[in-house]
């Protein structure tokens, strides 16, 4: 592999995790390319909340600024989808749907996750607006409004922190047990039986949840817990290990605290490995993984330098110089011994 064709790290995914990793790697003077399909998970939301100094920034603006910061240090961004990744004798090759394959010594996947939403008419269109999942991302924006919570007692008790008007819509979930029922009652949370079939919208605002019975429960926001699935297809192809996340919220790619997966040379960061991480935690995961990758590359660079140095000690040129220094004219062997002394 020609040196100039291979970069140190290809980062797949240019959201908060991937860009933070790329920034750290570029500042560590590593050659890094980010491949990004430009579909960050929070794209439907108007603003990113809980990001200190940038609270409320539109998701698209966050990644635009991030990409610029990476490029400022020599990192490259390729807007494309990675469609395959495979191991080579000296690293990895990543095929994309645009441009030449990318060769790298190490891989970092920061591909995020998909939110699997329930099949309810009109729900997908409201996702990230008045249909939400995360109280810390959206709770403030829907405070004091009538909030419906789909199926989860835990979520209902949580969102009660933001509004006194919370209704648990049982939908397809089991009935609360005695203790849960007591908790809900104590917090003034009504429980409505019946499957939700559609959302009612008026003037581009959520107005209610329609049940199969035809009854409409008036709500201004709906909270739910989607099933979370790591975008792990490329990693599975490389043999990475996945598991159910300890939170029970979905699947994730298993990695150590530094983001190192079970596949040598492959790291992960952000929602692909930590499905409950927000933007700040995902960015932090990117920085941690970048430092771990850089340490691994430093170790490899050192190994290579030591091998080269040892090889140089026994080079033909060094042997010639040493022999001349020690043996002088006798270095050519028997000839000098056979010739009579003058
Ligand atoms: C509606 C909504 C609102 C949210 N609001 C907030 C909030 O206010 N505050 C907060 O802290 N968190 C919020 N979150 C959570 C937040 O979205 C995640 O924490 C964050 O996006 C995770 O960052 P990431 O870099 O891991 O993944 P992402 O931001 O999803 O980035 C992954 C990137 O990888 C790319 N990608 C995936 N596969 C490939 C491939 N094969 N090739 C190339 N590129 C690929 C995607 O296109 C995407 O650009 C919200 C989530 C949702 C769903």
From TrEMBL:
Pfam families: Pyr_redox_2 (PF07992)
Reactions accelerated catalytically: [thioredoxin]-dithiol + NADP(+) = [thioredoxin]-disulfide + NADPH + H(+)
Superkingdom: Bacteria
Segments forming domain FAD/NAD(P)-binding: 8-283
Alphabetic keyword roster: Flavoprotein, Oxidoreductase
Protein name, as recorded: NAD(P)/FAD-dependent oxidoreductase
Classification lineage: Bacteria, Bacillati, Actinomycetota, Actinomycetes, Mycobacteriales
């Amino acid at each position: 592999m020609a040196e100039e064709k291979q970069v140190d790290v290809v980062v797949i995914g240019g959201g908060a995790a991937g860009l933070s990793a790329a920034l750290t790697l570029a500042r560590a003077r590593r050659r890094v390319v980010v491949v990004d399909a430009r579909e960050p998970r929070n794209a439907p939301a108007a603003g990113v909340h809980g990001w200190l100094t940038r609270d409320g920034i539109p998701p698209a603006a966050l990644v635009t600024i991030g990409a610029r910061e990476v490029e400022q240090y020599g990192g490259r961004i390729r807007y494309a989808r990675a469609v395959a990744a495979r191991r080579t004798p000296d690293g990895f090759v990543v095929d994309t749907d645009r441009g030449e394959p990318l060769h790298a010594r190490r891989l970092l996947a920061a591909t995020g996750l998909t939110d699997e939403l329930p099949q309810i008419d009109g729900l997908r269109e409201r996702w990230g607006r008045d249909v939400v999942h995360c109280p810390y991302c959206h709770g403030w924006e829907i405070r004091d409004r009538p909030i419906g919570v789909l199926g989860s007692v835990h979520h209902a008790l949580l969102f009660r922190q933001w509004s006194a008007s919370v209704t648990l819509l049982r939908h397809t979930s089991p009935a609360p047990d005695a203790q849960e029922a007591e908790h809900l009652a104590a917090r003034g949370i009504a429980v409505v039986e019946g499957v939700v079939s559609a959302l009612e919208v008026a003037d581009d605002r959520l107005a209610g949840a329609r049940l199969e019975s035809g009854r409409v429960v008036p709500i201004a926001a709906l909270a739910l817990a989607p099933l979370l699935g790591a975008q792990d297809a490329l990693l599975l192809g490389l043999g990475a290990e996945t598991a159910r996340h300890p939170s029970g919220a979905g699947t994730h790619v298993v990695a150590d605290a530094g983001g190192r997966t079970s596949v040598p040379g492959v790291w992960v960061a952000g929602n692909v490995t930590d499905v409950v991480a927000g933007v700040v935690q995902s960015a932090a995961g990117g920085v941690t993984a970048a430092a771990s990758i850089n340490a691994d590359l430093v170790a490899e660079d050192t190994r290579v330098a030591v091998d080269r140095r040892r090889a140089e000690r026994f080079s033909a040129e060094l042997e010639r110089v040493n022999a001349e220094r020690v043996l002088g004219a006798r270095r050519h062997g028997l000839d000098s011994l056979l010739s009579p002394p003058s």
